[in-house]
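Following up on my earlier message about protoporphyrin IX containing FE. Here are the inputs again, as you asked, copied directly from the submission form:
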Amino acid sequence: MHGADSSRWAASVVGFHWLMAILIVVVMILGWVAEEYPSSPDKVTLFVWHKSFGLTVLLLLFFRLLNRWTHGAPRHELKSWERVLSRGVQGLLYLCMLAMPFSGWIINSAADFPLNVFWLIPLPPLVGPSETLAELAEEVHVTILWIMVSLLVLHIVGALRHHFVGKNQVLRAMLPGTKEGRRQ
Ligand code: HEM
Ligand code: HEM
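Thanks, got it. Here's what our run produced:
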């Protein structure tokens, strides 16, 4: 399915993009709320949701990349700096989607907490207990978080700039629900 003549992303690519965008925002909000919450059973519950949805991001990422590799991308007339910058930001966003769940999983493992995804699926620790490693992984988790937030600002400003300043199809090609030219 490498139909490169289409001006739109395949519906499945659009579906993964927006499903994961919503999920990642929810995971971030849960992380911030859980972090600020006073120590209580509710705080633990918030963290279980945070970790479970965070690991769902990791699972979906795997299927998303498989899906992306089996579908063509729309062609846009872009300047070479726009192409390099957008590819770079998008590639780094994929890396963040991988690094956030893994660094979180390492915090959890090193801190010697049980990990029960949605209270149902027990996952093994990735590393043995270590206070130093838990602290390091926490720093990594939060540093990558802020890198990811900055990349998202660039990504969203870029998308809006294409739409409102460049007045091109880049954003429209990633929006759901337009009938014209949709490929499955
Ligand atoms: C897309 C995936 C993820 C994102 C975007 C994310 C984001 C966040 C955010 C925003 C915070 C609060 C940071 C702060 O205010 O200091 C946080 C904290 C935390 N997250 Fe995640 N997270 C993700 C995945 C995970 C996963 C899969 C786990 C564990 C299995 C996890 C474990 C933790 C822990 C233990 C903390 C508390 C760290 C601390 O005490 O400073 N996260 N995360
Ligand atoms: C957590 C939020 C988001 C993440 C993690 C994310 C991530 C990504 C990634 C990785 C790609 C590259 C797709 C590929 O070529 O494989 C992409 C494409 C795209 N995203 Fe996002 N995105 C998010 C939110 C948004 C938002 C809010 C907008 C619109 C304002 C947006 C607009 C776009 C557009 C227009 C493309 C296509 C770019 C192109 O054709 O080169 N994204 N996004």
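One observation from looking it over: The first helix runs from residue 11 to 36. Hope that helps, and feel free to reply on this thread.
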